[in-house]
Amino acid sequence: MPRIEGKSGDGVQAVNLALSIIEHLAREQRAVGVTTLAQALGTTKSRIHRHLQTLVQEGYIVQPVDSDRYACGPRLVALGRAVSDSLDLAHVAADPLLELRDALGHSAVVSQITPDGMRVLATVPGRSAIEIGVRSGSMLSFHSSAQGKAALAFSSAEFRARVLRSKLQVFTQHTIVSPEALAAELDKVRAQGWATAPNETGIGLNTLAAPIFDSTGAVCGTVGIVDMVQFIAGTPSEDQRARTMAAAQRVSRALGHGAL
Predict the structure, then answer these.
(1) Same domain, 97 and 22
(2) CA–CA separation, 112 and 218 (whole Å)
(3) pLDDT higher than threshold 60 for residue 32
(4) Are 146 and 70 found together in one domain?
(5) What pLDDT is recorded for position 208?
(6) Is residue 8 classed as helix, strand or coil in its secondary structure?
């Protein structure tokens, strides 16, 4: 980027304004005009325009053809992806998972959403003498696991529709295999912010899961606790729900959710 001339204080102000422009465009997720930017950032249109031209030259923002508006450019998108890729979900979730296990005693797990289900990335074994949990690398279904329902409930309408149209495999007599019943369950999960799946994948097992969101606001995974149904009920305790959702929110913040 070209060197900004002027006093050091002016240079800092220029950097601050450039970053503010980038953050505003990222929040808007659409092309924005100079007047709107100037009003939002409390400065003049001429000052905004100078910064926009530099950012366009460097590829951080773009100005569509025949338009007086500006939007995030390819260099900024690539930079965001590089940062996102460096924030490995399992690594970011390591401390929250350990603290969740220590607080509640149940196995704790982080899973990542994929087109075909929820891939278990990492687990922390529970305190029980009988180990109850899921293996890293396992793929969990969207309809019969708490992890799947917690992620699917907050995914796009198109993604949910694709899953609802697919064949819903029966694992136990408690597995939800009706698209209508699953859709209603997902509405409930969205309203409360967490999901369970007692006896739905295996008799005697239950998981409580809450969604993880990335820097764009998209659901990217879940944090959950796993144990036998007598320890995690269909409606878990308030403490279990609060701690699990707090752990998921902590991971989301570490991934940049809510930073803009």
Answers:
(1) no
(2) 12
(3) yes
(4) no
(5) 98
(6) helix
